[in-house]
Design brief:
The complex is a heterodimer of chains A (about 325) and B (about 325). Helix content of chain A is about 35%, strand content about 20%. In chain A, helix 1 runs parallel beside helix 7 and helix 8 packs across helix 12. With about 325 residues, chain B is an alpha/beta fold. Chain B is globular and about 50 Å long. In chain B, about 50% of the residues are buried. The chains are: A alpha/beta (about 325), B alpha/beta (about 325). Chains A and B meet through helix 3, helix 4 and helix 5 of A and strand 2, helix 5 and helix 6 of B.
């Protein structure tokens, strides 16, 4: 096992897949000469050349659209969106094309594209650059939405996304890039659409993903010091959503807190809570709690922004309410 | 009539005539089926524009990809899709081009290199750029022929795709079928420049503007344009045409006069070609009538085939959504 940052893990996954498969190419704003605005593709341009690392104009519609077209024609393009907030400029391509080309044409056409998008708040970038709209994309059948929370999963899931025959939106939380974790030395893949218990516990089930996984693990450590053992289930994929480990855990703990960075209304927590109530109603010993962002556009001011974002203390408080 | 097409032999001329008449009759039959309630959704007819699709695709090579917007029945036929598969898709049957899941606006036939039928205005232009990028990247000889309407040239996608195609010298033939109206809005009421080809100038892209009622003229223009595309990068060909029917079925056509429609109908692309074949190429009227009879039979056969074809099986509802074999529960059904 090596210790890598989240950024290094993603970079490795891309590099290995490009070495393995000449159909893989990268396209996006500043992915080439600049080396990626988050330095994920640093060195790629020199190694793989301008034919495979394509700097594009600032035009998200054609970045995702051309990636869809190249995927239809048999390539494995990885389109990078500098932030997920810009995905709204490519929303039609993602929602009306990536997600639908296959079914609408009776299975004749596939668009095995990977759209990497950097998301999340907490960096004082203001309302339009700080969103966590993951759930919006998870709404659409035909698309796969993956959002890893550890370097290990980031690498394995990105490699799986590139090899998937289906379109995948791969969400990277910007504040995770420096997070470190163990990554196996050799080749490995992580399956898309499989949730994972990241920390075992007997008293309460915390369901989470992406950045909030790290926050939930911190909360679980703090809770352990007061004798509460929280089990942390990482969804990893929002669509397909694997409720198996969540329900299995809940049937043991009978209590759940769902922690996400996005807004509470119509959120991941709403969906997961509804599924638990539908499928494990008899096992419910306390109301299911949701921890999420305040219902406001994120302000620039540091203190105000932090006040709006969910934190470990919020999770701890929610757990205390249900145990 | 355009010169330079004299190398076309009689058989080829008759084939072009057959194709245009087939597109026309298939559309006329579709209109009836729509009125009978057998075709659902929206139905956009190609009647009046036949010379564009037939003329341009008469010079495409099998390795050239074709993609278009939602007025796609004629383009599918010109790509080699059978009348049966087109009609079956219009009726939503399992034997349709898209297994009954696409409908009128989403025909596709990848075996014949026809990549759809796309219903979001302008959205397939980036797809065309991407397909051309893939072919260029792999060093393949094919080019991508992308049809779209005049209405699509005012949306951002058009400009993003044209810019990228020129920037990267992608092998795309951009074909604007300018039928003078984007739905009910005349070109000059929607576009700041009256000639669509002027928009290509902004990207330094070679371009041409031709009349689209004479199939041989269109064919000749396409030949030149495709020659420019192969190995050199994109070209925008604006073809002036006219749709004789409404934008879609149920269009009250308040935006144009019946005089105007009649004026264009007098300039029917099929009539023009028929006169040319009789007067200039000395093809006998009976031979053309024989083609017409063959078309009638083909259309009736297509309708019979479509009507007698099975509806998609209920389990088709959950098929073709994902290509990967294993997908957890929620996406394969209810849960």
């Amino acid at each position: 096992m090596a210790i890598l940052t989240f950024r290094e893990a993603i970079s490795q996954a891309l590099w290995e897949e490009m070495e393995r498969d000449p159909r893989v190419l990268i396209m996006g704003e500043e992915v080439g000469v600049w080396g990626g605005t988050y330095a994920v593709t640093k060195g790629f341009f020199d190694h793989f050349g301008p034919e495979r690392v394509l700097d594009t104009p600032i035009a998200e519609g054609v970045i995702v659209g051309a990636a869809n077209g190249a995927a239809m024609a048999g390539l494995r393009p990885v389109a990078e969106l500098m932030t997920i907030n810009f995905a709204f400029l490519a929303m039609d391509q993602i929602v009306n094309h990536s997600a639908k080309l296959r079914s609408m044409f009776g299975g004749q056409i596939t668009a095995p594209v990977v759209i990497r998008a950097v998301g999340g708040g907490g960096r004082q970038l203001g309302a339009t650059h700080s969103q966590t709209p993951d759930v919006v994309f998870a709404h659409f059948p035909g698309l796969k939405v993956v959002a890893p929370g550890t370097p290990h999963d980031a690498k394995g899931l990105l490699k799986a996304a590139i090899r998937s025959e289906d379109p995948v939106l791969f969400i990277e939380h910007a504040t995770l890039y420096q997070a470190k974790g163990e990554v196996p030395e050799g080749e490995y893949l992580e399956p898309i659409g499989v949730s994972k218990i990241q920390r075992p516990g007997r008293d309460v089930t915390i369901v989470t993903y992406s950045k909030m996984l790290q926050v939930s693990l911190q909360a679980a450590d703090a809770l352990a010091r007061e004798g509460i053992e929280a089990e942390v289930v990482d969804l990893r994929s929002l669509r397909p959503l694997d409720m198996g480990p969540v329900l299995e855990s809940f049937r043991r703990t009978n209590r759940a807190v769902i922690a996400e960075e996005g807004w509470r209304s119509y959120g991941i927590g709403s969906e997961v809570a509804a599924r638990i109530y539908e499928e494990a109603f008899d096992d419910v010993d306390a109301p299911i709690e949701r921890v999420a962002q305040m219902e406001v556009p994120l302000p620039y001011n540091r203190d105000l922004e932090q006040a709006a974002l969910p934190k470990a203390d919020d999770i701890i408080a929610a757990v205390r309410r249900v145990v | 009539m355009a010169s330079g097409n004299s190398k076309l032999d009689k058989q080829e001329l008759l084939r072009l005539y057959h194709e245009m008449v087939l597109v026309r009759r298939l559309e006329e039959r579709s209109a009836i089926l729509y009125q009978e309630g057998k075709i659902g959704g929206f139905l956009h007819l190609y009647i009046g524009q036949e010379a564009v699709g037939t003329g341009i695709l008469s010079v495409r090579r099998p390795e050239d990809r074709v993609i278009t917007a939602y007025r796609d029945h004629g383009i599918a036929i010109s790509c080699g899709t059978s009348a049966r598969a087109v009609m079956a898709e219009l009726l939503g049957k399992a034997t349709g081009t898209s297994k009954g899941k696409g409908g009128s606006m989403h025909l596709a036939d990848v075996e014949n290199n026809f990549w759809g039928g796309h219903a979001i205005v302008g959205a397939h232009l980036p797809l065309a750029a991407g397909m051309a990028l893939a072919d260029k990247y792999r060093g393949e000889a094919g080019v991508t022929i992308c049809f779209f309407g005049d209405g699509a040239t005012n949306i951002g996608y058009f400009h993003e795709a044209l810019n990228l195609s020129m920037l990267w010298r992608l092998p795309v033939l951009w074909v604007c079928e300018n039928n003078l109206y984007g739905m009910g809005t005349a070109v000059e009421r929607a576009s700041a420049v009256s000639q669509i080809r002027q928009k290509a100038e902004g990207y330094g892209m070679p371009n041409a503007r031709v009349e689209g009622m004479d199939v041989l003229e269109v064919r000749q223009a396409a030949e030149k344009a495709l020659e420019a595309v192969r190995g050199n990068g994109p070209f925008l060909l604006e073809v002036i045409t006219y749709r004789f029917r409404g934008h879609s079925m149920g269009d009250p056509e308040r935006y144009r006069t019946s005089d105007e429609v009649q004026k264009y109908q007098a300039n029917d692309p099929i009539g023009i070609f028929r006169r040319h074949l009789i007067e200039e190429r000395k093809i006998k009227v009976e031979e053309l009538d024989t083609e017409e009879t063959k078309v009638e039979e083909e259309v009736e056969d297509a309708v019979r085939f479509a009507e007698s074809s099975p509806e998609p099986a209920p389990e088709e509802l959950f098929r073709d959504i994902y290509a990967d074999p294993v997908v957890p529960q929620p996406d394969t059904g209810q849960s």
